[in-house]
Every structure is written in C-alpha cells, then in structure tokens.
Amino acid sequence: MILRQSAQHAVFRSPSLRSSYAEISCFVRTRSHGIPPRGSGCKGVRCFTSSVNRQQIEPTEIQRRALDAFKKTYITIKPDEGNSTIHLIGRAKIGSRAHLVGYLASRRDVSKNLSFAVLRDKAQRFCVQLVSTPNSASHDVLRGLKEWTPILVKGTVKARQAAKDPLYMGMQMVNQREIEVDEIAILNDVPSDLVLKEETVFPPEQRHLHFRTNAEARQILELRHTMGADTRTHLRKRSFVEVETPILFKSTPEGAREFLVPTRDKGLAYALPQSPQQYKQILMASGIDRYFQFARCFRDEDLRADRQPEFTQLDIEMAFAAEDEVMQAIERLLTILGQEPKILPFIGGRPWITKEIPRMEYQRAMALYGSDKPDFRLGMKLSADLISKISDLENPAVDAFKLNVSDDAKVTRKFISDFFDSPEGKPFMENPAGQPGVFVSDMSKPQQGLGVLGHEFLMDMPEDLQVDNGGLIILQARKDEPFYGGSTPMGNLRLALHKAAVAQGLLPAPEGYEFVWITDFPLFTPSNDTDPGQGGKAGFSSTHHPFTAPKTAEDVELLLTAPEKAIAAHYDIVVNGVELGGGSRRIHNAEVQEFIFSDVLKMSNERIEDFRHLLDVLRSGCPPHAGIALGWDRLLTVMLGKESVRDVIAFPKSGKGEDMLVKSPNRPTTEQWDTYNLQLKG
C-alpha cells in the first residue's frame, strides 16, 4: 500500500506528466484498441488493424467512373481567387476573374461556336449570364449539360448590354455583367430521365424536387423562419424565457391518443408528448415567470387537412397570471407578426389586425353560427326558434339562415338540388333530428313561394332571414339543450353550402381576416366512443384538458352538484373559421386537481398515479398560472391563404399519416421487435 502510494506520488510529481487530454489519449492508444503505435506506418488515428485479410476491391467500369467524377468535386474556392458571389458580380471590375457555383438554369446554343447559359446562385435569388465559345476547354461540356446541373464555373467578367427585364424566371439578373467561361466542373449529374421544370407537379415521393423547382415553396419555408425569428425576438423582449422540454415523456390520459415508444426494459415505454402542458406547469412552479417554446407535439388521431400526427405549436405559459394577461400577450404578438414586411404581401398588403379582437361566449357562438370556430366573413347568421313542425323531436329548437346565391330562382333550385344529391350534401339528409327545410324565394309565385312558413312569418320576417328573389332560407331542428362539441349539423351545413357556392362561382371567395376570442366553454363534455378523454367513469371528459380551472367561484361549487354545468376558464383564438390555438387558466392547487381526477372525472387510482409527479409539484406552492398554445402550422396556413397545413410544412405526412418520401412508418424486423421484447399478434 505504501509502495503504491509512493509510486502514485512519484508519477504525480514526475516532469513527464501527461498534462493534456491529447497526450493522455496518445498514451492510452499505444496500448491496444487495435491502434498501432507511432512509427508503425499509419498516420494519426485513421489506421486500424483487422483480423480479416482484405483484398483490393476491383470496381466495375461504372463504379470507377463514379469514383473519378466524385474526386473531381473536392473543390474549394479561396477568397483571393476572384469574385465568388453572383449577386456581387454586378460591381466586379471588367476583366476580373470569377469563380461561381450554382445550378444551370437554361442554355441557348446560337451556333456551334457560341452558347449562352444562365447560372442560378445557390439560393436561386440571383442569376448571371454565361457565354461560351470554342476558345474554352469546357465549351462542349456546357453544351451537354441538363438544366439544374450543379456546377462550378470559372471565367472572366465581361460587360454586357443591360436587358429590358431585370428579372429572369423570378430571379434578379446581373444586368450589366456576364461571365466568359473558360472552365466548368460538374459537381453532380442530373439523370436524363428526370424532368425538372418549374411547372412540373411532383408527387410527395419527390418533395425535394418540388422545393428545388418551386420558388413559392422555398419562400414559404423562409417566411416560416422569419416569423419564428420575429416571435422569439418579441417574446424575449417581454421577459419570456425559451425552454426546451423533453420529447420522451410518459403516458398520461390528457385527452388525445398517444404514440408509445418501447424501450429495451421489458414492459416499459415512453410516450411522445401531446403537448408540453405538464412540463410548462412544472416550470411555473420552478420560479420561471414567463416561458415559451416552439414545441414538437404528437397525437395519434384521425387526420384532416389541418391535422398532422406530428406538428409544431408555440407554447406559452405565464406565472401569477389569468386569462386576460395571456390573451393580451397573444394579441400583441399576432399584431406584430401581421406587420412583418415579408408577410404583408400575403395578407393583402395591410395589417390583418386593425381593431381590438372581440370576445364571444361559446354558447352564443354555437347559437349564432353553429360552430365554436365561426367565420364572420360568411354572414349567414343563424336565427332560432322559428317553427316546430319540421321535426319529430318534442319541443325542438329550430335554427335558420339565409343564403343568396342567385337572383334567379331556377338557378338557386338547381344549386340546392345538386348539392343535396352530392356526396357532400347527402349526410345532411340523414340527420336523426330531421331533414333540413329548404325554401327558395320566388317572386313569381304567391306569397314569394314562402307561404308554407306561415302568414305571421311573412308579415314579420326576421331581418337575418329577409331574402330577395332567388334567396334561400334553410331550417334545421335540434334538441333544445345546451351546446357541446365543436359544431352543430346546421353550422356544418352553413359552411358546406357556402363552400359549394364559391366553388361554382355563385359567390365570391371570402377575403380579409376576422379574429374572435371564444370564451366560457363548458368545463366538461359528454364522452363519446371516438374520444379517449381521460378514461374516467363519469360519462364526460374535460373539454380542454383536465388541468383547466373552473372560471368562477360559482363554477367551483358546481363541481359538487352539477359539474356538467360548470364553465371553464378556457379561451380559443379563432380567425376565419380556423382555431389558431387554445389556452386556459390552470388548476394550481394539488388537492383540487386530485379532486377533479378522482371525484369528478372518476379516474382509476392507477391513472391518477400517472399524474403524481404533477400533483407533487403543485403541492410545493405552485403560483396561479395560465397559458396558451398556438398551432404554428395552422397560423402559417391561414396567413398564406393555403388550404392545408401540408403546404407550410417541409416534410408533411399524408392523409394516412405516411411520409411518402422516406416511406415511413415502415415495418420493423422480427429482430427489432425482439430488442424491445415485443411480438406481433396474429
């Protein structure tokens, strides 16, 4: 022991001490690990020994050509070699050298002795004309290249007569300079069977070609970047802290179906987060005042045009705050984004928010528009309680709206008949509350053709239902009870008819932006077979999520007697019929949160324990807090006037949740399943 200690001290004090990581690494590598010592014929760490006797590979002729061509692409451009940026060539001296890289845009062969071509820059924003003659060793090379071939061009800057149009294929042309080519290096080939044109519509399997040839698609990605950068700047100026939360989470019954990630520990799995909801509430208990994150979220749910299995949301949470503070913060952010110069052309050239965003209670929105995401631009407000003779329901409520598609009653009749005969219209004829009543105003008929609605109706017709010749009045019965869910059949019919009329050119497409906050949602919604909810036995689930607080003290008391009547401190921001995001004030008291789980939702003890981490955090003295999540993909979709979120996502999934480019999801091998102690049934 003494000798070992002495030896240690001797080494410690030795002047030959290896005092750097590099020296220690060299010392260790001289021992083994298959790395021979210095002087063995190998240089550095790139050599290794192998017990396998390897023979030299003899490449095929095709492989040899590919290897030789690949070696020629090992090209670097030094700053002192000449002009190397296309957009600066316009200021280059006549006769100076230029070394440029980019894509070949087009070529025009005037004769055997003269060819013109256009070179796109790397970002396809600028381009310059190339001139080639037989004096160049690469003259024949250039004449054999396909459009979109990536190349390195070396040549001399020459003067040229300015073109009338400074734009070429949407790019800024270097107008008073051109390059006389003397050398071209091909950086990769473009197959002869690959057609690359700007007008080509590429399938999802060729998403990369879609971006390469479509300037608008690339511009959308740049706009997405700009909006993200502006948002970060705005929030940081207001003391928000950006925090990344884990992607590998745990399974908890928040409301949506989850994606599970198995582990090699038998029976254990992660879950991908539906949202960072629980982590951001934990941050509020951690002394973080204001949090934000561009969060990746995952939900295994039925897909629609505005849904993806993975998506991005702007997540925000504020401590010691309630609904108004969060709503005001979002209004400020959306106002600033709508003033971004790069965005303005897409939203009509003027800010999209010019007044305070109105607020509307959920029940009122459902009664007036049949939707919790009303599009005010369409008009067609619903009027209720007109007549009780079109349904078998006992004491029904009857909603009605008007629609003017033509001043010719014949055109209107054909439109409505074709609609209800179409696949889009047939489901509305199968409403268990009764088919919709459809009435066409026709001045050529007695009582305007609306006599069936009754003399009193005609004499005192509600203003919202007054129609001219050819106008439509639609009636629909429903149960006279409070609203739940996101829409009513009448609200869906309103949207479907308007969409059909626009598609046929009978109505103009709506323009502009109409924002509204929808507030005062029911705290709970009756359960159904398609919504997993929180898995409780109460017969209902949380409308937003189980962490949402009741709106008032009276709503807290309703939890004891009639929870289905309680109102939530929940708010959605809606524009043009699209929900951009939703938020709420949270339950910050552990005992109240556990009471919601156990006594109100009647969740099992096992599922409640999945939230034990959150309950312990709340019990530590968590302050009141509120937050919101904006669907970032949806926001871009609305701002840019696109039909689907797939248009604003670089690599979206299909309607079936598939990535057609990389072919995911794929089928794991038996060995891969075995790694996770799993096997397929059947």
Short description:
With 682 residues, the protein is an alpha+beta fold. It is built from 18 helices and 22 strands.
Task: Estimate the strand proportion.
Answer: 15-25%
* Share in helix: 25-40%
Query: What is the makeup of the main sheet?
Result: 8 strands, mixed
Radius of gyration over all CA atoms, rounded: 34 Å
Sum up the overall morphology in one term. globular
> Which homologous superfamily in CATH is the superfamily of the largest domain?
Bira Bifunctional Protein, Domain 2
CATH architecture of the largest domain: 2-Layer Sandwich
Number of domains: 4
Going across the major beta sheet, what is the strand order?
A: 7-10-11-22-21-20-17-12
- N- and C-termini, Cα separation: 64 Å
* CATH class wording of the largest domain: Alpha Beta
Please tally the β strands and state the result.
22
The stretches of 5 or more residues where confidence is low (pLDDT under 50) are 1-36
Enter the CATH topology name of the largest domain.
Answer: BirA Bifunctional Protein, domain 2
Give the number of helices. Answer: 18
Mean of residue pLDDT values: 87
Structural class: alpha+beta
Family: Belongs to the class-II aminoacyl-tRNA synthetase family. Type 1 subfamily.
GO molecular function: aspartate-tRNA ligase activity; ATP binding
Pfam family, one: tRNA-synt_2
GO biological process, one term: aspartyl-tRNA aminoacylation
